[in-house]
Amino acid sequence: MRVKEVLGRGDYALIGELIPQGARVLDLGCGDGALLAWLKENKQVTGRGVERQRSLVQDAVARGVTVYQGDIEAGLTDYPDKAFDYVVLSQTLQETRNPQLVLDQMLRVGQHAIVAFPNFGHWRVRFAHLTSGRAPRTPLFPYNWYESPNIHFLTVQDFEEFVQQQHWKIERRMFLAGDRRIQNLPNLLAEIAVYLFRRG
Fold first, then answer.
1. Can you name the residues that pair with 173 across neighbouring β-strands?
2. What's the CA gap between 36 and 100, in Å, rounded?
3. pTM beyond 0.70
4. Whose C-alpha in 5, 16, 41, 183 is 20 to 30 A from the C-alpha of 174?
5. For the chain, which residues make up each domain, given as ranges?
6. Which pLDDT belongs to residue 47?
């Protein structure tokens, strides 16, 4: 089954599918605010974003979305418990220094968390590592080891085990390879994983 991309990204399409009309949404590492603007226009959400790079914050504000500059690992302490219905973290978890803290804070300030991340267990990554003997480089991970923003190399299986250890509840899980949904063997076949979860 093919996924019609939103703003050129399959994970955005799946995130848009998970968020209901009129929800209160916090987007962490929101970049230029494109997803928030889309959710505001198409789902009538009340949205806020947090972004580290000043230039991207300015771009987001120019789009008409509320975004402030901050570090997501330190910047959620200002929000009260359950201030949002959904807290989104897309393609950023693997770049955080303390992912456990970030995920825990997401579930403190939000009723539900949505996380999308690249699956480092995908067969192309495994094959690239096996055949080259070097840090894998694939279309999904085009960086040299010394310039990669990725500091945690998690897989679908790693994330599932972590959520289980935290006693959190996975509400939905969706997987992509290119623009196709993956149903079977996601740890091997999925390039992108998208999870909706909450406290148990």
1. 195
2. 24
3. yes
4. 41
5. 10-199
6. 95
